[in-house]
């Protein structure tokens, strides 16, 4: 299947999505041409779901960066918190940058079904993101108890609480799973920005790329719809939005 055909399927749900490989290429071009840095001067941290499909579909070119440092747990929420942010902030080259790629993920099959993918070696589709679908199922059945976050299932309970706060918005949407993913993205974006604000970095730049990571069948690869591409100059404290690069 040609790339334009794959994009045509994904664009039914995410009209501005691009392949994740093209996204990484654009970021590296920007780092080299606009920030005058080499990828080896950039420490990559990602806050994406710990689902194995994200490792399988992770573009090989990200290996040109340092890292990655893993901040994300279920559906990409930055569960490593301030300690994780401070840890990788201390690993960055003094004259370099940190690059944080973050967001929830969702599946879109080659037939256009949202919330599923066909994984390698399996005879039927499976959920993606399974945690988001599980939390949504409990929301639909009124099984989420406010403030109920346990030690045994802390990450899943956190995702449930995020959806519970936006219950009406999610359940009245034409696609509750699509909307749940939007809600989770907003929660991740808010928390990431809070963590960045409270962290000291001994480098030149912080690059924030917020997105919906779209997985597909094993022969389709992954796609990214960018929601934020901000660069913070740590010397001047200036923050610039470069989202136009992905239009």
Question: What's the gist of this structure?
Answer:
It is built from 8 helices and 10 strands. With 247 residues, the chain is α/β, with parallel strands linked by helices.
Give an overview in words.
By secondary structure, the chain is an alpha/beta fold. Helix content is 34%, strand content 21%. It has eight helices and ten strands. The chain has helices at residues 3-10, 20-33, 52-56, 81-89, 130-140, 154-164, 167-171, 176-197, and strands at residues 18-19, 42-47, 66-70, 97-102, 105-107, 116-117, 126-127, 205-215, 222-233, 239-241. Strands 1, 2, 3, 4, 5, 8, 9 and 10 form an eight-stranded mixed beta sheet that branches. Strands 6-7 form a two-stranded antiparallel ribbon. Helix 5 crosses helix 6. The longest helix is centred in the last third of the chain and has 22 residues, at 176-197. The chain is globular, with a radius of gyration of 18 Å. It starts with a helix and ends in a 6-residue tail after the last strand. 42% of the residues are buried. The mean pLDDT is 97.
